[in-house]
């Protein structure tokens, strides 16, 4: 019987992934609880099992405490000395050995039920601990079913929920499809851990680059900021901690191989990789890539960056429906005011500042973008973004995830390719 017991422990350890010591303690606690239920007055019964031999001891013992609150399970020091002269505070003093064979069939059935219940609880707790440590990491699961609340992913030992709000609008899922997702939250429930995952979170993009780019995983290249509109376009700013290492080149990879892998995982989402800079003017200019920037004026107090771009680059800097300017504002954390370099007419300037502002507005030369949305769009006179074409029309390699092919000129006059 002992050999069978040890074999059962090893099998449970392999199937459930629960350590042997935890299994032994769980079984001890279960049998101990069953004893106390079938034998009134035996609240001080204790069970000890040898995990190596399977031998079980059942005995009665009480704890030595300075002041007795529960006479059924506790002794004072004087009472304990009657059974063990060397007993001290905190000791468990044994005073009667019981025969496990006298447990009875009813008691054995109750013990079996309690053991199964405690093992299920131990398994759920072990699973929760396993996935709780994987919070903010990427997991790979298989689509098992699609429900109104979201897609259910089978992770092997547990299931994860991909809510509809965390799914890209351009993606469609089918049963059996392998899906990577970012762990947002792990909750403890009575049925096991409940795992919520996302494919739209910006840190999902960060983890994907850590998997594809060894320099980012090693820390020599750091992702400083991410702005993402899932399923459409993203911008990431990178910097190097190693002298002589090009952070953009390392992130993009040879012929865009590294970033193309990330783009493929995201279903074709465009990704702009730009160099990060401590200088706000340079950083804002780079963030508006692929548009060429003539100059940037920084208002530190109001955190406004006034950007001047060539007239032909105005629609490109703004982007379709203001997306390029909006993502640049999210990436940099600055409110961005974009104007063309075409000066207002001299007549309007002569009439005063108000007339000049009105002329500029009529020409559709300005757009103000914040981290949330653009406050204004281009006017019909200036041409809408759709008329000017998308970023790809301007020759950028955003589809491949590489940096813009159009040079970006910073306020200092430096050109970053």
Overview of the molecule:
With 417 residues, this protein is an alpha+beta fold. It has 3 domains: 2-131, N Utilization Substance Protein A, Chain:P, domain 4 (2-Layer Sandwich); 134-200, Nucleic acid-binding proteins (OB fold (Dihydrolipoamide Acetyltransferase, E2P), Beta Barrel); 203-416, GMP Synthetase, Chain A, domain 3. Helices cover 34% and strands 26% of the residues. It contains 14 helices and 18 strands. The protein has helices at 2-16, 20-38, 77-81, 105-132, 202-212, 214-218, 247-252, 257-265, 280-287, 314-318, 323-332, 346-351, 353-362, 385-388, and strands spanning 45-49, 56-64, 74-75, 92-98, 138-147, 150-154, 159-163, 178-189, 192-198, 221-229, 233-240, 270-275, 295-299, 304-309, 335-340, 366-369, 408-409, 415-416. It has a 5-stranded mixed β-barrel. Strands 1, 2, 3 and 4 form a 4-stranded mixed sheet that branches. A hairpin with a 6-residue loop joins strand 1 and strand 2. Helix 2 (20-38) packs antiparallel against helix 4, helix 5 packs across helix 8 and helix 9 (280-287) packs antiparallel against helix 11 (323-332). The protein is elongated.
Q: Structural class, judged by helices and strands?
A: alpha+beta
The CATH homologous superfamily of the largest domain is named K homology (KH) domain
What amount of the residues lies in strands? Answer: 25-35%
At the first level of CATH, the class of the largest domain is Alpha Beta
Provide the domain count: 3
Radius of gyration based on Cα positions: 34 Å
State the end-to-end distance: 75 Å
Mean pLDDT: 79
Helix content: 25-40%
Query: What is the 3D shape?
Result: elongated
Largest sheet: 5 strands, mixed, barrel
Poorly predicted sequence stretches spanning 5 or more consecutive residues: 345-366, 373-417
Total beta strand runs: 18
Shape-level CATH architecture of the largest domain: 2-Layer Sandwich
**Strands across the major sheet, in which order?**
5-6-7-9-8
Number of helices in the DSSP assignment = 14
- Tell me the CATH topology of the largest domain: GMP Synthetase, Chain A, domain 3
């Amino acid at each position: 019987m002992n050999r069978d017991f040890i074999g059962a422990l090893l099998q449970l350890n392999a199937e459930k992934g629960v350590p042997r010591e935890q299994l032994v303690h769980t079984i001890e606690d279960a049998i101990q609880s069953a004893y106390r239920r079938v034998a009134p007055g035996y609240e001080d019964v204790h069970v000890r099992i040898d995990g190596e031999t399977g031998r079980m001891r059942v005995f009665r013992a009480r704890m030595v405490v300075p002041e007795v609150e529960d006479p059924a399970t506790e002794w004072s020091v004087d009472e304990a000395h009657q059974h063990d002269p060397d007993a001290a505070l905190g000791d468990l003093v044994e005073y009667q050995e019981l025969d496990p064979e006298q447990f009875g069939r009813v008691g054995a059935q109750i013990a079996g039920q309690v053991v199964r219940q405690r093992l299920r609880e131990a398994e759920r707790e072990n699973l929760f601990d396993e996935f709780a440590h994987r919070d903010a990491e990427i997991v790979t699961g298989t689509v098992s079913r699609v429900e109104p609340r979201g897609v259910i992913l089978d992770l092997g030992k547990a299931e994860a929920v991909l809510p509809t709000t965390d799914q890209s609008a351009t993606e469609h899922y089918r049963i059996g499809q392998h899906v990577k997702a970012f762990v947002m939250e792990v909750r403890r429930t009575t049925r096991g851990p409940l795992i919520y995952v996302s494919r739209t979170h910006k840190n999902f993009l960060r983890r994907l680059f850590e998997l594809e780019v060894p320099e980012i995983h090693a820390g020599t290249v750091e992702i400083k900021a991410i702005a993402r509109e899932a399923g459409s376009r993203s911008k990431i700013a990178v910097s190097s901690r190693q002298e002589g290492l090009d952070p953009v080149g390392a992130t993009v990879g040879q012929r865009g191989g590294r970033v193309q892998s990330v783009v493929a995982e995201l279903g074709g989402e465009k990704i702009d990789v730009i160099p990060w800079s401590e200088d706000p003017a340079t950083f804002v200019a780079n963030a508006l890539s692929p548009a060429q920037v003539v100059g940037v004026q920084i208002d530190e107090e109001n955190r406004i960056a006034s950007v001047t771009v060539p007239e032909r680059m105005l629609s490109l800097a703004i982007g379709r429906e203001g997306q390029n300017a909006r993502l640049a504002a999210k990436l940099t954390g600055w409110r961005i005011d974009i104007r063309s370099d075409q000066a207002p007419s001299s007549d309007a300037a002569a009439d005063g500042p108000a007339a000049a502002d009105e002329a500029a507005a009529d020409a559709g030369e300005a757009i103000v973008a914040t981290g949330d949305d653009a406050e204004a769009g281009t006017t019909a006179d200036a041409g809408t973004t759709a008329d000017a074409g998308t970023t790809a029309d301007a020759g950028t390699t955003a589809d491949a995830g590489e940096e813009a092919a159009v040079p970006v000129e910073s306020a200092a006059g430096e050109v970053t390719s």
